[in-house]
Write a structure and sequence with these properties.
213 residues, two-stranded antiparallel ribbon, 10 helices, elongated
Length: 213
């Protein structure tokens, strides 16, 4: 049985020098943006503390609410789950459909308030082992409770891009190394886009503790 090796991670943010000022510019950006830019704004948001104060799981929906002050568009974008099919072509097409349909129904193009533009970024995720290894469910639960935002992001969010959209490192280890498909299924049912990072940490740790009794 292999231990669970804890990792930490952070994103090296790189400015593109471009900003989005209104909804029509967002539409153009979705058509033309490099995959790395889309990936940053859709999948790296949980690494930012602002994630915990947003009702949405990715930055585009959050910006529609706070930048454009368009609550209807924010809800439409918020219902879109980029993890369902994270391939660039799939997320680009889905986002274009949402924004195009919304724009057609508007009498004017929403603009961002000054200082609330969407500054386009790309990022490189740097992950590294912490040196901590968990061999039991209780050890892993304790490690999760001590984990940083970057560590939880790497094992619970980014893992869905490495493994499959319904999987994460914790549930994979539970099922493959511990033979606990039941506990793994509980973790996979966590509605993570609706939760803050500390709430996800608590649910993961509590599930591991319960399974380790």
């Amino acid at each position: 049985m292999e231990p669970f090796l804890m990792h930490d991670a952070h994103a090296l943010r790189i400015a593109t020098g471009r900003s989005v000022l209104n909804l029509r510019e967002l539409l153009t950006t979705l058509r033309e943006a490099e995959p790395e830019v889309l990936r940053h704004h859709l999948f790296r948001f949980p690494l930012h503390p602002a994630y915990d104060f947003s009702a949405f799981g990715h930055e585009l929906a959050a910006w529609a609410e706070t930048g454009l002050q368009d609550a209807v568009l924010a809800e439409k974008l918020g219902h879109f789950d980029p993890y369902a099919d994270p391939a660039t072509d799939a997320v680009r097409a889905a986002l274009l459909d949402i924004v195009e349909e919304h724009l057609i129904g508007l009498s004017h193009v929403p603009w961002a308030r000054p200082g609330h533009e969407l500054h386009l970024m790309r990022s490189i995720l740097v992950a590294y082992p912490t040196g901590e290894a968990a061999r039991t469910l209780r050890e892993l639960a304790a490690a999760v409770r001590r984990s940083s935002r970057g560590s939880l992001y790497f094992h619970f969010f980014e893992a869905r891009l490495r493994l499959c959209p319904q999987d994460d490192d914790f549930s994979r280890w539970l099922e493959v190394q511990q033979g606990r498909a039941d506990a793994a299924a509980v973790l996979r049912r966590i509605d993570f886009p609706a939760l803050r990072v500390d709430e996800i940490r608590e649910q993961v740790a509590a599930t591991l503790e319960e399974a380790g009794r």
